[in-house]
Amino acid sequence: MFGRNIRSTILYARAYRPQRRLATLAEEVLRDETFHIPVVTFSKFRNAKSTAEREQTAQEVVNAFKEVGFVYLKDVVMASLNQWSIMHSNRQSAEFFKLPIEEKMKLAWEDPRSNRGYVAKGRERVTQETDAVKIAQMRIQAPDAKESMEIGRDWDPTWKNQWPPQSLAPSFKPTFLSFFQTCHELHVEVMRSIAMGLQLGEHFFDERINEQYHNLRLLNYPSIRTELLKGEGQARAGAHSDYGTLTFVFQDGVGGLQVQNPHTKQYHPATPISGTIVVNVGDLLARWSNDVLRSTLHRVVAPQASLLPPDAEMTPQRQSIAFFCNPNGRASISCLPNCLGSTGPKYPTVTTEDYIVGRLKDTYS
Predict the structure, then answer these.
(1) Where are the domains of the chain?
(2) Type and span of the H or E element at 237
(3) Start-to-end CA span in the chain (Å)
(4) CB within 8 A of 179, min separation 6: which ones?
(5) Structure confidence at residue 233 as a pLDDT band (50, 70, 90)
(6) Which CATH architecture has domain 36-363?
(7) What are 157-195's pLDDT values in tens digits?
């Protein structure tokens, strides 16, 4: 009897022991020791069996964008966006950058209103700075160590894509026309999850993003002496925010992407995770939401030591593809009615085209 009472007391104590409350994402990101980019299984939104399940996943996406501005989306596989298509697109991108420089320069980027064509190493200097003289100095002292190829909607009535000759890159154009369209379709779905998470109605953004006013950027970061990336202000891509609604980043396993903790201003690696896409908020979505959703600074530097061989003198080549999602060109971006807060709109109304062209003029020579 005595033993039974002791056992009952122990069971009672365990049952009613105060449970330690798990920290929320908002609490975790306040400290660098616990800061992380959330992983959200997006198939739970696409394939949800109930509205409640869709709403739960939508809220996970919105919470990540509120607190961090970044998320890893897992299981985003669509009919034409799968591991094979991503690998194929990366191979086509890598083959393009192997072309002779004289061939690539025939496709040279020319106009911020077009934002199409080849950008040679050192021409772009991404930054939050807007003073032309200061940007020119930064470009000389610490140029971005990358080259890129910019692709827009192929049916644009004014601006045309610049494609390499089929004889040099036979699969390039069809590959990236398909990839562009698939990324747009994913953009629509993720924006629907955001609209639901913000209680706007799932299809709120549909007619504001249907013109596919996007930019597909193929990126090559050539191998570089690791010591050079340790110089003052030097990076493969300097600290910056993106311009549109969302950015999809398809990165290889080399690493080097870093995200700033909005609360402490310290940078943390966005370590490549197999089977995920890195997605971040851009300036126009932040303006739309009155900064409820964060457009977070990020940069590309040397990978963390754990991803490099010991005492590596050279940082290996890095490949990535970024799809910059934008609202329609003439869309009016002003504070959403349920994001006014107690102080009202932080930003004046702006159109997509005016904002993006203005930022591009600042960053290119």
Answers:
(1) 36-363
(2) strand 237-240
(3) 87
(4) 81, 85, 89, 216, 321, 323
(5) low
(6) Sandwich (2.60)
(7) 999 999 999 999 999 999 999 999 999 999 999 999 999
